[in-house]
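Shipment paperwork, digital attachment
Item: protein structure file
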Amino acid sequence: MATFILFLHIVGASFWIGSMLFLILVLHPFLRELLKEKKIFYRILRRYNFIGTTLILPFMLITGLLNLHYGVGIKEAFSGKGDYSRTFLLKFFLYWLVFALSVFHDYLVGPKGLEEERFRKVARFVGIANLLLSLTIAFLGVKLRFGG
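Attachment content:
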């Protein structure tokens, strides 16, 4: 069961980070050149926001906590003692930061950014920061698999 939970967690992380990379590096530059970019991009982002932020991020929290349950134990991970616990606590804090930034980006500044340049700049900055934080979380996850 532990292996399957870890597999699901990795699939969720792959979707989360992979789709952000795809949106930033492939889709957005292409759609920017199209005449009706705003409408098309907004429809894609609304769908992605629901799947990514509303479904995948909570899924990652659940599978992550289940990984702890089957691994070192939840109490040990939250103890703050040892390298593993400190790395986990940093990862857990960054998860909540990414979650908050995702909600802020996807449901507040992102939609307004389609109409106003000032919101577009904030959405771009938050989106890039969120990607970098997500990559950091993935790195910390790998570090935890090797003992913290």
